[in-house]
Queue: 3 jobs
Job 1
Amino acid sequence: MTSLDPEIYRRLLESSPEGVALVDVREPDHPVIYVNPGFESLTGYAAGDIVGRNLRLLQADDRDQDGRHRVREAMAKGESCRVLLRNYRRDGTVFWNEMTLLPLFDPEGRVSHYVGHHRDAGERLRMDSRLARDSLSGAHQPTALAVRDDRLTGLYTLPYLEELLKRDWAIAQRERRSIAVFAIDIDALDTYNATFGRAAGDSTIRRVAHCISGCLRRSSDVTARIAGGSLVAYAPGLDLEQALRFARLMTERVRDLRIHHPRSTVLRYVSVSIGVAAAVPEADDGPAALLEKSQMQLKVAKRAGRNQAA
């Protein structure tokens, strides 16, 4: 087989629309040693801003994410993994990073580097409108569409929620009504999984998800799971003050589950942090901005100590 010129490999990486980052695991703190233009475009960080630093930079101070535990677990075993992480671009905007992590081995068979393939999950988390057409024609009625349901919790998937939100956004705009969005994270879920195992973590996610959805009981309220212990919900007709009251009720109800979490730095029991955003849709607005604002408010709640709504 004819070997390729290294210049061909370089051009192949640089022409990839997917973000690529290479980290050296032989060095302390696993510094980045290369990123391609696709990574720069995705994150807003120039190569010079991130080479020599750890990729945790993309999580800012929002590091209480189950996906990080899965990454550490895979790297400790020298395995590959694919995770969905809430990341932040250089300008502070939030995006869901679908990262595939692959080990690279030296001639002695030891892992020397990891290559990460990064892409904005917003491109993947888009629903085929033909699949959704019939189910979106009326109220939230059960359908046979697999894309509708999250397998772990039985809640909606994020793509389905987004399609419903587009419809309810248009209605709220026409009727001049507010819509509230909630971004919810289970606190210290990565530590919980490390303590009790993945099966126990999944059971906790299900219990918390049902507790949260039980607080939003109206037929117009919608709750979905994004990934791990991250949920999102919206409720038409609630202004910000009303939504914050609901969010505080959610945090209280989750605490009342009294799911023991001895290694949590927040409480002895499982808790949640919630970001809340609400708005009356304007003609030039879209729901994506409200979803993003709720994620930014979630970051505020975490900075304030977690186990609360902001």
Job 2
Amino acid sequence: MEEQQNRRTIRSFVKRGGRLTPSQQKALDDLWPEYGIEYSPDILQLDAVFNTSAPLVLEIGYGNGETLVQQAAENPNKNFIGIEVHEPGVGHCLLRARETGVENLRLVVHDAIEVLSDQIPLDSLARVNLYFPDPWPKARHHKRRIVQHDFLRLIADRLSDSGTLHIATDWANYAEHIDEVLAQSDRFEITERREHDGDQALDRPRTKFERRGLKKGHRIWDWCCTKALE
């Protein structure tokens, strides 16, 4: 199977089942056939998934899906795939998708690294969004952070030649880590980097986790990185 080196025994997330509300459970039961993509070790036929050809945006860890649905609604000329492992968040996202009536959105419930490795074709993505990933703040857990060299290589291989990677965090230590990993990567060039107080988000909506961080007095870091031409 392709890119076995990207397989990890260390996960960058903890899968928390959480308690589904009755409406979230009903959304998973009723709406998943319309919006869901089942994980499998086979490459997706994206035109068949969306019944149309359009630039594809992939978001890793979309939380409750509010901003993901917002982006899909505001950009009907693009297709969106969201990856999340927290089922209540998936249920909430499905409800918002139905309320908004978006047709250019699909969801996957699985480990993002395996989805990228197995299902996303090479050179197929216009953009990847990674907004406020788990910071794993304790030093002994830094190896669990998703932003690592192998992750950047995996993303770069799936991006088109002009594709971009957008990252945001509210943890200063994680921002330092991201700066170090990007500085050592030959697969991306930093197009723009911002440090701000929640008032200069870089081409993205404000998220739930961003609002939570701002209430704690955290600053915000944003990066836009363009795939380097080989």
Job 3
Amino acid sequence: MAKIVVSDTDFGDSLFEKKMVEAAGIDFEAINCEGDRKPEELIENLRDADGAITSYGDYDAAVFAALPNLKVVSKTGTGVDNIDVGAATKNGTMVCNVPGYGTEVVSDHAITLALCVLRRINEMDSDMRNGIWNFQKCRPLGQVRGRTFGVVGYGHIGRAVARKANGLGFRVVVWDRSGKPGRSTPEGFAYVSLDDLFAESDVVSFHTALTPETHHLLDANRLSMMKPTAVVINTSRGAVVDTDAVAEALRANKLWGAGIDVFEDEPVDPNAPICKAPHTVLTPHAAYWSEESAIELRTRATQNAIDVVLGRKPENCVNAEAFTSAK
């Protein structure tokens, strides 16, 4: 019997996946769902698997070389930067993802972080719990009106963030690799160059995939282009933003605030510079999660794996060319 293995998710249990997989007539196994992320662990756990459902595992070329019978790796998310797609394709392994599932909740989270930083909500809440009734202590406090919101990356989530920011009263500008400065998005937001976006925005929110070109897209050099009153928001991929450079800018009063949900190394070290920096709101890679989005995510990721194992073309696949050679 064909077999699908869940090996490294953070859902707490895999009963949801188990029910779907077994109902499709496929054997199922869940192995230490909060661990098993290293290649050697994945190889050991997936030796007899036809499909894998994964969140964070490091699926490098060695994994695929050692698992010639693996038909599919189904990612419980959008980005597949933890999977060597080229090696998977060479192996005849389909790599599936779940684009669009978190558009509304991630955009909600990005906007929430921006407003919390501008209004210093977490700082005032902490003061009150320590007997301090004095909002003046947290000044300066910002507002929406009169501020420019820069959206870096204009996919599904970037569009939703722009829509919501505009609805609140921000002026919105956009940078995207496919957008030409001087033109406008279909919604009427101005495309600008990346340097211009950093220079004129009061809030810069990142919604781009992690690629070699976007690694540390925000670094010390680009931070120096920003207003000292600006706010950085990141709900995309941790390595898109150099958080050590952000922490230094915050300490030096060269940046007003930051709202960060994703980090290069997770879980983040509580002694990391960003955790010690002032005027920050930090969340533990939670932007993608709502009870509603989780159901959609888990359903679609599991169905992708089931479809491939049963010889059907999945709904979402980043290397469709592997379908013809899938085992």
